[in-house]
């Protein structure tokens, strides 16, 4: 049984705590948060710390789950790795391309530990089936792809946690916080993006630095063209949608289901496991990814999302920011 700890007991931590609790091969040993008032979010009997360095020094841990604001992902993960502890880190990988590269170097330079990144939508049932269809060549090659994230966030979303609205601490706005999974899946399904032209804006009128809306045209290495659009200025949270046109068919993921479009009719193929209630958009695939990661820790040859896998989305965001700033198309690293 592997001994785990969770660093950060904010909104996303319940996903990790629940996944650990339901996995008979993991024991939750400790949790850490600078706010002592949230200690009750952990099960009774689990050690509580306010200093993660102290926790790393005192506990015999196999893995830490990093559930902190974006700007802390890399430095806290680095400290855990240097202490010889495996890391499962929330998205995004980093707040900049430079920090993402450092994270990838950390993974490469310390093969004695494993680093997993929670880009769990790759394991959604709809994504897995669409990826299988694409890779099998059943309907030919990808011709075009589009990703859309029409969401809403009130101003209180930023005022209650100001780090979300600042470039230095969030990395960006809707791209990092709401759309990182969609950006990841566009490349997961259609391959690397080599060139783009994007525009960022603030439609909500909130007192924040980061963008709340973005639109971007994409050119993939394969020659495929794509479109990405995301906003927090919608009137409510509507379904994320990914449309993929193949030479021999059209497929759409929306409302947590994969459809094939046949003669203008959407024919359902598979549905994702999902949460109910207000946080439905978190999805249920983190638990699948966490289980795979711990199987890898046990020595099984199972895939999970590495830091090197997660780096591409950070480069994409950096390129969109550059393109919007200078008003021109840019190459993607």
What does this structure look like?
This protein has two domains: 2-119, Rossmann fold (3-Layer(aba) Sandwich); 121-281 and 306-331, Dihydrodipicolinate Reductase, domain 2 (2-Layer Sandwich), CATH 3.30.360. The chain is an alpha/beta fold. The chain has helices spanning 13-21, 52-58, 73-82, 97-109, 125-136, 156-159, 167-170, 174-177, 180-190, 285-297, 307-326, and strands at residues 2-7, 26-32, 47-49, 63-66, 86-89, 115-117, 142-150, 193-201, 213-220, 225-231, 241-246, 249-254, 257-262, 265-271, 330-331. It is built from eleven helices and 15 strands. The termini are far apart. The strands form two sheets. It has a nine-stranded mixed sheet. A six-stranded parallel sheet has the order 3-2-1-4-5-6, sandwiched between helices. 32% of the residues lie in helices and 26% in strands.
Count of distinct strands:
15
| Structural class category | alpha/beta
Radius of gyration: 20 Å
Largest sheet: 9 strands, mixed
Q: What overall geometry do the principal axes of the alpha carbons give? A: globular
Strand order of the largest sheet: 14-13-12-11-7-10-9-8-15
CATH topology group of the largest domain:
Dihydrodipicolinate Reductase, domain 2
Mean pLDDT: 96
Unreliable stretches covering 5 or more consecutive residues: none
The CATH superfamily of the largest domain appears as Dihydrodipicolinate Reductase, domain 2
Strand content: 25-35%
Q: How much helix is in the residues?
A: 25-40%
CATH class of the largest domain: Alpha Beta
